Amino acid sequence: MNLRETCPEKVLSAEDSVKKIKNGSRVFIGTGCGEPQRLIKAMIEDLSIQDIVIYQMLSSTLSKYVNDDNFLSRFSIKLFFISALMRQSAFEGKIDYIPVYLSQIPEIFENHEIGLDVALIQVSPPDHHGYCSLGISVDITLSGMKNADIVIAQVNPEMPRTWGDSIVHIDEINYLVEHTEPILESLPGIKNQEVIERIGHYVNILVDDGATLQIGFGHLPDAVVSYLSDKKDLGIHTQVITNGLLPLFKKKVITNKRKSLLPYKVVASLCMGSKELYDYVDNNPIFYFKSSEFVNDPNVIAKNDNFISISSALEVDLTGQVCTDSKGYLFYSGIGDQVDFIRGSAMSKGGFSIIIIPSTAQNDKISRIVPHLSEGAGVATTRGDIDIIVTEYGIAEMRRKSIYQRVMELARIAHPKFRKELIEEAKKRHYIFPDQIPPTTQDLLFLDQYHYSLKLTNGKNILFRPLLPSDEFESRHFYYSLQDDSIYYRFFNKRKVFSRDMLQKQWADVDYRRNMTFIGLMQLGKRKQIVAIGSYAETDENSAEVAFLVKENLHGMGICSYLLEILETIAKENNYKQFIATVLAENRKMLKVFQKKYPSAKFIRSGSGEVEVEMSFQLPDAL
What we know:
Layout: H1 3-6, H2 14-18, E1 26-29, H3 37-45, E2 52-56, H4 69-74, E3 75-79, H5 87-91, E4 96-97, H6 105-110, E5 116-123, E6 131-133, H7 141-146, E7 148-155, E8 163-164, E9 167-169, E10 175-178, H8 193-206, E11 212-215, H9 219-224, E12 235-236, E13 240-241, H10 246-250, E14 266-268, E15 270-271, H11 275-281, E16 287-289, H12 292-295, H13 298-301, E17 307-312, E18 315-317, E19 322-323, E20 326-327, E21 330-331, H14 338-347, E22 352-356, E23 360-361, E24 366-367, E25 369-370, E26 388-391, E27 394-397, H15 403-413, H16 416-428, E28 452-455, E29 461-466, H17 472-481, H18 484-491, H19 500-508, E30 515-524, E31 527-540, E32 543-550, H20 559-573, E33 578-584, H21 588-597, E34 602-605, E35 610-616
Parallel strand pairs: 1-2, 1-5, 2-3, 3-4, 5-7, 7-10, 8-16, 11-12, 11-17, 13-15, 14-16, 17-22, 18-25, 22-26, 32-33
Antiparallel strand pairs: 6-9, 18-19, 20-21, 23-24, 26-27, 28-29, 29-30, 30-31, 31-32, 33-35, 34-35
Helix pairs in contact: 15-16, 20-21
């Protein structure tokens, strides 16, 4: 469409268009990489324009001017989210920050809590019906445009056309400025690749095929998604599409076909990345751009089954409080979309949220897992909202856990050199018991190879993994759920009490090499419960003693035999040559398990009614 022929009265130069902005106006500017650079430049260079309040979510172009005293005397900047380029200016008090959930910003405009006089936006050229596209910036831009008295649009052929709610007609725009320039690109900086790789590994463990994902703002969420390349049929419902997702689109990892809300569509609000990403999004019908009040509405998010929110944080305290928008008193980013998506994921059938965070900052000098948030730090996400926290040292499951359990979970995934200190600080605050043993300072990444699954004849699955300090309470529940005969066969006495001292010693003695304990977990109701425990403990450099306990209703399903197989594999890796066991003679089920696995085992009966079993491993033939 030739705009100069269709609506010549609307077509102005950039310089003439900004003269429509009256002094004292409240001006909204489109978001991030979708901002109209030419219009911003023209507004700032027109020295007659004075006393302007600018509202924007993510700002880029303004960073070129914010250190100019003349600019600051004429413009006040209020941001809903502080971009990396504006961070130093925020620290220095040159800009203002409005802490609000992203889903609520459109409502603030619509209710005129923030009255807008002018909106500066960027659109694609109109089609032959007169419809332009907001392209990669729909988010709060659509609402900002609809609720401003005057709308000035930069018409840029470089802006991709996108599907969804991005379409606006030229009748909705007061003035049009034709100007071609490259769309801003946003590429993540180089960070610690080892930390990213390890966090990506743990995120991969947590994400199942067919899940629908949200990827939060920031370099870390963008970087870890590449570690999901082995998944199938992932879906996307997210605020921002970034370059990290591009390989997953191209490899057909993201198909959206198993989404329960808007299947076969990537639902998003804006796009920030490279020209390659913009070209992929351009006129691509799988991308469905909606405004923030839809994309970020927790009730809408919850309609996606198996929804997983992945976002980052600056620091997390031992109770699970998360800070995302400030470093102490210095505002660093923004509340953004994290809480919206975390609460939506909590309401989703099968959904949950993951907060990813490096364990340290400043070259390992300080821990990001802290006894209390830094003075002045704001709580963006409350301890009641947290599900899972991941560092490069592991996965901490927080949902519905007590303060004691949270401390043990988080201390375990903190950097090894801070774990003991965190436990001591937790004791001072009476979060945990005074005699609590701190978790090992080992790097337990190698334990991830020791995760197994067994499908039972009743169709249920049992997951097997090494015992962790945070399993103390679940271990206690397991022991107390057993019948007297099971306890007697395992401990050779009718033990009635399973004290904290006993349970602490159980995991404190586990070094995962010379002494190993495995637990079997089954989904019972809404949580996983321990249904089996198997362990070995060193007796000499060549031998280890084994023992097992399985819930009575699961006897005869091969659980004990499977645990024995796992333990033998690990024992061989640690140079053991045999297992030994002491079994009561009347415990025929256990004896049968050993006999079946080790036909050449030695069974030596003592006069006290016990059977000593010696089981040599079959070693591979020598080459």
